Amino acid sequence: MRRPESKFASPNALLHAKQLGQAVRAARLARNSTQEAMAERARMSALTWLKIEKGEVSVAMGAWLSALEHTGLLDRLTQVHDQKSDVVGEQLRKDQLRKRARGSDEAVKKFDF
Fold it and tell me: Model confidence over 41-63: pLDDT tens digits?
């Protein structure tokens, strides 16, 4: 039996998905558009659009991106893909940079011909 996707998402992720769905709904209402009209523009079913507005995590990422694009919210994701805004990740990348290995003097003398 298949487990629901909500079992895979943390409570924090579920909260953010719900907030993102509310933002999509607010943007749609601000544009005075119906769910059916926005779903048609975004090339998805009205049921999928409804699930997005509810913040369901079972909806495919492509559908979420299409909904964000058609409500004018897609540009707000720029911070997510900006590596400089990920302070922890940036520090880890710097720490893991390969450093030049230097041989000890004894190792160099051992192979000195």
Answer: 999 999 999 999 999 999 999 99
| Closest by CA position to 48, among listed 24, 72, 23 | 24
Helix axes 11-30, 61-70, angle to 10 degrees: 30
Closest CA to 45 of 56, 31, 32, 59: 59
Q: Token digits for 113? A: 């011909």
DSSP state of 59: S
Give the whole-angstrom CA distance, residue 61 versus residue 44.
12
Please tell me the pTM assigned to this model.
Answer: 0.71
- CB 71, CB 31: distance < 8 Å: yes
Tokens of 10: 């943390």
Q: DSSP assignment, residue 6? A: G
What's the CA angle centered on 53, arms 1 and 74, to 5 degrees?
A: 110
Which residues, at least 6 apart from 24, have a Cβ–Cβ distance to it below 8 Å?
Answer: 52, 53, 67, 68, 71, 73
